Amino acid sequence: MRSVRARAALGATAVVALALVGAGIAVLLVLRAHLTGQAGLQAEVVAREVAGQLALGVPYDGLETRDEEDHPVQVTDDEGRVVAVSKDLQAITGTGTDRVTPVRPPLTGGSTGSGDDRDDDDGSAAPGRGEVDSDDADFGNGTATVDGERADYRFASVRATTPGGETLTVHAGAPLASEQQAVGTVRDSMLAGLPVVLFVVAGVTWLVTRRALRPVEGIRREMAAITASEDLGRRVPEPGSGDEIARLARTTNETLAALESSVERQRRFVADASHELRSPIASLRTQLEVAEAHPELLDLPGAVADTVRLQTLAADLLLLARLDAGERPGGTRVDLGRLVREEVARRTGDRIAVTVSVPEGERFDVTGSRGQLARVLGNLLDNAERHARGAVTVEVRAAERGGVAVSVSDDGAGVPPGQRERIFERFVRLDDARSRDEGGAGLGLAIARDVAVRHGGGLTAGDAPEGGARFELRLPGAG
After folding, report:
1. Coil/strand/helix, residue 279
2. What is the DSSP letter of 418?
């Protein structure tokens, strides 16, 4: 049962089957209760007719009942003795006694009274007349054999008092054959129709599910082809239905596009890293080979510079690799104002002095990695000093929603508006920068933005009041 269509068809069929069985049982119970109630009403009518005759003093052998074959009657006294039964009644159950042979004690009080049938003022029965119990009849099911035929009946029991003061109970029955036949007919019809309905439900569910899952199969085939060909430029077909499957296809294509971009970026990163590493390694090798042949020609400062450049590039690549691997920043509480002062203080030998603007007595705490944040500030200062003509300014201030903003401005040529996002890409250097940059590999700003994003903030480029570039770092506050 590994097919979605089969599971859907089986599940729908099972649910419908349970619902139909439950509904069928409820219908049968309601129908049976209704028909049984109708039979009980008929039995009560017959029982009250016979009880009325007994209340009028009619002798036992003079009792009349309608449809004696359909409505058997049994009359018992307080001691449970049978005093009268209907004609041809041969056996009975469900009335309290199964005897059908009357024991006929004489009626007392008969109809020998004054004959006055009127009631007294206090509502009691007049002399010469009994009464019928007005309470609800008692009901029960049983069987009776009339003229050799045994059948099920609904019995109603009504109490009556004879003119002589004797209390009798009249048991009258109504046949349940019509109720049983009707219930059986409905039950058989349901049982006959249930397989047909379930077959239709299963078939319709199978076809609908098959049609609904057809685009999924197309998506699966295309994904298998993409996996086999390793061509991330391909896309899965998007159905125009606008349903969940269409959204799945759209999301799959978006994922493929992001994966293609990531792979392309990774390939470009590897290629650029190889290119950047090749230059200092080749230069260092050349100097070492020359020094081996002619020690007096060794350019020791140049070799040291190439080694430092190689070390810095390796550290940058390692940091980017950790960031790409999802390394989360630490939870250290860092005062950005103090960190800015420390970073500027240790750059005393730089060619351009840096002006720091940090409000005295205020703390600008953020949560993160102190080392990575110091790296961001160092990269921004390196970039500003590399392009500044004579002034670099660092300002720390409070930002909206409890955040902290650090801006680094220079008075250089600035960054063209169309290049302000491109400069944050890895190994990207503008033509102007390439002519002036003797050591940068185009990774400083990329690392700065990645670290800022990992800390929940961001890094943007704009115009400085001095006319150069202005980089603004925004981070959420520690609170």
Report:
1. helix
2. G
